[in-house]
Amino acid sequence: MEATVATHPPAAAAGARRKPFYRTLWGQVLIGVALAIVVGYISPATGVAMQPLGNAFIRLITMVITLVIFSTIVTGIAGMESMKKVGRVGGKALIYFEVMTTIALVVGLVVGLLTVPGGGFNADPAALDAGAVANYAGAAKAQTVTDFLLQIIPTTVIDAFARGNILSVVLVSLLFGFALSALGPRGRPLVEVLDGLTHMIFGVINIVMRFAPIGAFGAMAFTVGRYGLSSLGPLAQLIVTFWVTSLLFVLIALGAVAALAGFSIIRFLKYIREEIVLVLSLSSSDPALPSLMTKLERLGCSKGVVGLVTPTGYMFNPEGSCIYMMLAAVFVAQATNTPLTAMDYVTLLAVGALTHKGAAGVQGAAFIALVGTLMVIPTIPVAGMALILGIDRFMSMCRATMNMLCNGVAAVVVARWEKEIDRDTLRANLASLT
Questions:
Q1: Neighbours of 174 (CB within 10 A)
Q2: pLDDT digit string (tens) for 259-273?
Q3: What residue spans define the domains of the chain?
Q4: Residue 100: closest CA among 260, 281, 335, 298
Q5: For the whole prediction, is pTM greater than 0.85?
Q6: CATH code that applies to domain 11-433
Q7: How would DSSP label each residue in 26-45?
């Protein structure tokens, strides 16, 4: 299998000779997914047994993500002309994150109210399995905003990489980048060493990505074998509503943002199609982070912008998770016939704006954030989350994909604000690279 993520041919050559579908990474992943659906459907037990293949691939990628972030941010900051630019980029990114996540929260809430996905369920909260969400509720209680902020600071530098906490790694990277930049010419040899390390890491990723179709096969076979396509039936309206809403959000909201920045969202989606297929099949955005950062740099975004915006966006800009949280919260209220006041909806939005950040970095972050949000409004039975626990895997496929591509767009937008790439060059690069 031939990977095409970390290294790419020149644009002219790529445009002159297209690879056959079955030789492209995204094509091989799609083939793996199709085979997985067949295996999981025909033999559920066999499908479930394939789970280690997906888990192993995800772990192979995540083991080098922190090194990618560290080397990219440090060399990017060291290469910036001033520390003012670092602060400016970070400030613009945070403003963008807050605006877009707020829009996503409002969209999820409004869509839930208009489509009424939970209507007709008439679920009795007392009859639901509250124990199924007990672990998530415990995590939601334990993870406060203060805890979240304190956990960003690692016990040691090594601890940041050992725990795999992306924000901790970003913090360490920023400090090292600032220090290296302050050294001036004396720091150039170290910058060159880190640049060489970056190339070596992406060489490792290029090797690992050859196994992406196998990992996608394992993850999808487990999903279909464990939950079964028949489990989608009773909650089909909620699943379809979420997927359609997410698609429209990308085409309309992100499409408008992209148009203002001077590029086509359709072209961009085509450009990162390999990452989209990979995240959809694995239900995790982590494996796509290294290759996404590489492709953003190829478009013309600097290492500094990509290194700062993309990793922090995974924590502060999960627009797919925001839509999911509000839509699922409204669904639970409707399914359990729980009436909500206008103030309850305002509270949902306000709390959701905090909890989607507070649960960042925790396993099952979106589900935990949703449980934490519902716990603030006593009238909504948290046990109602048991209704959607079984289909969360199918929802997470869409959530993870949305989060990944939204952060890709964010990096390009910030790069345009920083005038790192002009409109015509960006369009030309997208046209030639797709």
A1: 17
A2: 999 999 999 999 998
A3: 11-433
A4: 260
A5: no
A6: 1.10.3860.10
A7: HHHHHHHHHHHHHHHHH-HH
